[in-house]
Design brief:
single chain, mainly alpha, 2 helices
Length: 68
């Protein structure tokens, strides 16, 4: 049986993952509209940061699920 703290952490991580995935969709739409240049490079860097955070959150979620 999962502890209430683990359950709470999983819910919080799940919400953050949903938000980051939605942000990733917005970034993809913005990248399609941007011309080549500094703005596109900045958006690509931001996309990289969001992807890295998603990966980090998924790893944390996996670790919590293993504790259950």
């Amino acid at each position: 049986m999962a502890s209430p703290v683990v359950t709470w952490q999983l819910r919080k991580i799940g919400a953050r993952l949903r938000a980051r995935r939605e942000e990733l969709e917005v970034i993809a739409e913005q990248l399609m509209a941007l011309e080549d240049g500094a703005d596109e490079e900045a958006m690509q860097r931001h996309r990289g940061h969001v992807l890295a955070e998603i990966k980090r959150l998924e790893a944390k979620q996996d670790a919590l699920l293993e504790r259950m």
